[in-house]
From TrEMBL:
InterPro entries (UniProt xref): Beta-barrel_TonB, Beta-barrel_TonB_sf, CarboxyPept-like_regulatory, Plug_dom, Plug_dom_sf, TonB-dep_rcpt-like
Annotated ranges, domain TonB-dependent receptor plug: 126-231
UniProt-recorded name of the protein: TonB-dependent receptor
GO cellular component: cell outer membrane
Entry's localization field: Cell outer membrane
Record domain TonB-dependent receptor-like beta-barrel: where: 391-879
Keyword terms, alphabetized: Cell outer membrane, Membrane, Receptor, Signal, TonB box, Transmembrane, Transmembrane beta strand, Transport
Family membership: Belongs to the TonB-dependent receptor family.
Lineage: Bacteria, Pseudomonadati, Bacteroidota, Cytophagia, Cytophagales
């Protein structure tokens, strides 16, 4: 009886399954075919319904036989009602929805929703005249990224260079070092607060204020020509079509601070100006002019990180006046644990690396970011528009670095025995960076159908950086039998002030004319720009020795920094240092471009001419260096690109352009700076600009307006590339110094693939770039005259070595897996970024370059909607806590020596940094009419 009942139940269930059916299909916009994600497909009068997924698909399952009325609805669109019958067979039914023109408010909602969407990003990529990649506001919102520097590593072909806290800071485009790229805000180049270089620290810009991020990988004549790698354009939020108010607040913590606490110092008495700046050049400073509270180390459990943003936008005066206001603030506590070896080359002819000093570093950094963004536009009529943009961006870093410096090359060092000569170094650094930019511009159209257009803009930008009272506290010590001995004060402690400003005045004027030749798509574009740049640098360092007595022992003469008795060796500082200079750069440029559209092919061909006048003047002349210098040159930069439309969803594009890269202002100054926590640095007045011929092809397939398949290749032929090498004035003596140098010619080529696909609730983003660069340079090989005779004379010979360009990783990959449940209001994304090995520092010696290991970073983000206006989200960064490591691809010269952190006998580790995981919990709100 029981078996009969079970059999009967199974047969009934099977009978129901046979009779039940599914209805599925796609819901898209009738005009654009854009998937209408979130639309509802409801069977009227029943509990059966479906929510349209990421790819525009829906599926209503297990429908019994019968007749149903289906209703499809989406905000801003006309509802669709159809009747159909189910007879046990699965059905396919697609719905094309039209905008509801009878509901103006809903139409406006639909139109404004396009801004910052994935559809807009894919449309820009498809329609652009040059090769670009776009990250939308929506993608940024769902990612775990808090700064623009975090975002760029998600773009195909881009990797990042990290700062001392482990955060991404500068973009490397297609294997080209950060010097070969420039940064734009709303299409306008901005100056850098970096005290040495042109490139912009992208971590100064918060992600919340972006409408989208555009990366141009090829140039047109309308774009400035100093971007061999590419250009990163931050398009900030613009005025919406209707009222909008959105914001977020986040709390977070970093694991490394939980593990060991956070080191800090008191900034309340920090002197922003040196005695020289306060009292004049003739003032002789005394110890009373220097505070002590900001030179004393403390440890605490920090407060949680706090991040927040608020954005408001609306239109007034019958939609003629648009207003966008936004602000952002971030206060975070970062840490790192590092081991750094000062490496040299064996003096006895093996050519292998030797280790001379080991620094074990513990760093803590408080970062404060603030940003204020406003844009106002006024539309007189469809032909004339004026706009004003103002942005102000701040980044403050307050860092403590506690270092234990061990002489690992001395006779007293025994790692296994726990003995060695030590130097204890504590460094306190405060840095305030600011970028201001203001733009007044207009867009005008004349004649029937806008055959003649003009746009213009005037830009004022100012970047500044201040590092006040950057000081070190050095003590000598010793370890005996693994026990630290009392420390005594080291000579030549310093406290220094560094300030620099970079001011730009820029004017742009562009014209476009449609002559009506061949067809209406033909355009002649021409225009120009002029920029006047003024940059100045101030540096003053005061040197201190212990005195009364000169030998001061911990626990006897002092316990903290304020107990030490000091003598000031240079009461007027050292303002004669070459780091005190003024520099300028004047660039005038003009271009002409022609645009043609024939045989389904858009062709752009033109030329840009740039005149550069660049130079510097030292504040104090010196007999050993040139007190002022300048260089003037003209570059003719032709370019041509085509985009062939294979069909409505496929493009084949190619381009050629010539570009340049100018030396940094600081690099051509004949300075030299000694560093306690890294290599010394010096300038190179003979540095020349880099020129390059660039070739690019790409196949594009856009299955829908939100999906894409991109496959491309590129070649860059460089003349006189600039790289930083570890050099010394005398090959056998003197410390190694980092110096920029031109290195012959180089070729960089690569392959790119970019893939975005959605499957209802699942989304996949994947991109991969292979880069191969080759440059042949002279290296020094130090060896025995007779390699088989270890007693023969030690000689040095020059040999050629072929290697990749500095900063170029052979493999770069990004993978993001997304999950979206419309019913639960849940979004989840896990993202992995892989960067292959690359050369970080070029050694002058054969086979001694410093390479970074491959890095994989894994991040997680989860968002949960609460009603229509609120979203709770969680972010976890650096889940794997992947270390950043540098190594030399050669074993140590002393194979029998024992050093810490050397775990592979076939290589030499020279640096290892660990940064820990970070966690954030946040709430986001959005209000619309």
């Amino acid at each position: 009886m029981k078996a009969r009942f079970i059999l009967s139940t199974i047969l009934m269930a099977f009978s129901f399954a046979v009779q039940a059916a599914n209805i599925s299909g796609f819901v898209t916009d009738k005009e654009t075919q854009e998937p209408l994600i979130g639309a509802t497909v409801q069977l009227v009068g029943t509990s059966y319904y479906a929510i349209v997924g990421l790819d525009g698909s829906y599926s209503v399952r297990n429908l019994p036989e019968g007749t149903y009325e289906v209703e499809v609805s989406f905000v801003g669109y006309q509802k669709i009602r159809e009747t159909f019958s189910v007879n046990g067979q699965n059905m396919k039914r697609d719905f094309l929805m039209a905008l509801d023109n009878n509901d103006l408010a809903e139409v406006v909602v639909s139109g404004s929703a396009i801004k910052g969407s994935e559809m807009q990003a894919r449309t820009l990529e498809r329609n652009a005249a040059n090769t670009i990649n776009v990250i939308s506001k929506k993608a940024i919102e769902l990612s775990p990224d808090i700064t623009v520097a975090n975002i760029v590593q998600r773009v195909s072909g881009l990797s990042v260079e990290r700062n001392a806290s482990g955060d991404p800071q500068h973009a490397i485009v297609r294997g080209m070092d950060k010097r070969y790229n420039y940064t734009l805000v709303n299409g306008v180049k901005i100056p850098s607060p970096d005290n040495q270089n042109r490139f912009i620290p992208l971590d100064i810009f918060p992600a919340q204020l972006l409408e989208r991020l555009e990366v141009s990988k090829s140039l047109t004549p309308m774009m400035e020509g100093d971007a061999i790698g590419g250009a990163v354009n931050m398009v900030m939020k613009d005025a919406p079509e209707e009222f909008m108010l959105e914001g977020d607040i986040q709390l977070g913590y970093n694991q490394i601070n939980l593990d060991r606490g956070f080191y800090h110092y008191d900034r309340s008495d920090l002197n922003m100006n040196s005695p020289y700046q306060q009292f004049g050049a003739d003032y002789a400073a005394s110890m009373g002019d220097f505070t002590t509270s900001n030179m004393m180390l403390r440890n605490k459990t920090p407060m949680p990180d706090i991040l927040g943003s608020l954005t408001y936008g609306d239109r007034f005066l019958n939609d003629r006046l648009g207003v966008m206001l936004g602000g952002s603030f971030q206060n975070s506590y970062r840490g790192s644990d590092s081991n750094w070896y000062r490496a040299d080359v064996d003096n006895f002819g093996s050519g292998r690396p030797t280790l001379t000093r080991l620094q074990e570093r513990v760093s803590s950094t408080q970062q404060q970011r603030a940003a204020f963004h406003s844009k106002v536009d006024y539309v007189f009529n469809p032909q004339h528009k004026l706009y004003v943009y103002a942005g102000n961006y701040f980044l403050n870093d307050f860092r403590v670095r506690e270092m234990l410096d061990t002489d690992v090359d001395g006779r007293n060092y025994n790692y296994l025995g726990g003995t060695g000569i030590l130097t204890h170094i504590t460094r306190f650094t405060s840095r305030y960076q600011n970028i201001q930019t203001s733009t007044l511009g207009g867009e005008h159209s004349f004649g029937s159908r806008g055959r003649f257009t003009m746009d213009w803009s005037g830009v004022y930008s100012l970047a500044a950086s201040e590092s006040p009272d950057d000081g070190i506290f050095k003590r000598n010590g010793e370890m005996r039998d693994f026990e630290f001995q009392p420390q005594n004060i080291e000579r030549r402690n310093f406290r220094q002030w560094l300030n620099n400003t970079d001011r730009d005045l820029t004017a742009f004027l562009n014209f476009s004319y449609a002559p009506g030749i061949i067809n209406d798509e033909t355009r002649i574009q021409f225009g120009g720009m002029y920029r006047d740049k003024d940059r100045n640098s101030f540096f003053n360092r005061y040197i201190f020795d212990p005195t009364s007595p000169a030998f001061q022992v911990e626990g006897v003469h002092w316990d903290t920094f304020e107990d030490v008795s000091w003598a000031l060796l240079n009461p007027r500082g050292n303002t004669s240092d070459p780091l005190n200079f003024d520099s300028y750069e004047k660039i005038a440029a003009g271009y002409i471009n022609t645009k043609w559209d024939v045989f389904n092919t858009e062709i752009n061909a033109g030329v840009r001419v740039e005149h550069t006048d660049q130079g510097y003047t030292l504040a104090v002349a010196s007999q050993s260096v040139n007190p002022d210098s300048s260089q003037t040159y003209i570059d003719v930069l032709p370019s041509v690109s085509f985009k062939h439309r294979l069909n409505s969803k496929m493009n084949l594009r190619g381009s050629y352009y010539k570009a340049l890269s100018r030396p940094g202002f600081h690099e051509i100054v004949p300075y030299r700076m000694a560093e306690e926590d890294g290599f010394d640095e010096r300038g190179n007045p003979n540095l020349q600009r880099v020129r390059a011929h660039n070739y690019d092809v790409r196949y594009e397939f856009f299955p829908t307006l939100s999906e894409q398949v991109l496959v491309g290749a590129f070649v860059k032929d460089l003349r006189d590339p600039i790289e930083y090498t570890l050099a010394r004035t005398n090959i056998f003596t003197g410390p190694l110094s980092l110096q920029p140098t031109n290195f012959g010619n180089a070729v960089n080529w690569g392959l790119e693939a970019d893939f975005i696909k959605y499957y209802n609730k699942i989304g996949i983003r994947f991109n991969y770039t292979y880069t191969n660069s080759r440059i042949t340079t002279s290296k020094i090989e130090r060896r025995r005259e007779n390699p088989d005779d270890p007693s023969s004379q030690l000689v040095q010979v020059s040999v050629d070595q072929t290697r990749p360009l500095q900063g170029q990783a052979d493999h770069i990959g990004n993978l993001s897996l997304m999950y979206k449940d419309q019913v639960l209001g849940l979004d989840a994304q896990i993202s992995a970024v892989y960067t292959g090995e690359r050369i970080e520092f070029v050694s002058p010696f054969l086979n001694n370059d410093h390479w970074s290991r491959p890095i994989t970073q894994l991040d997680l983000s989860v968002d949960k909607n609460i009603g229509k206006s609120l979203t709770v989200f969680v972010r976890v960064n650096n889940i794997l806590d992947t270390p950043y490591e540098l190594f030399v691809k050669s074993p140590l010269a002393r194979e029998d020596a024992v050093f810490p952190y050397q775990n592979n006998v076939n290589e030499t580790v020279v640096r290892s940094d660990r940064f820990g995981q970070s966690y954030r919990l946040g709430l986001r709100f959005r209000l619309n009419q």
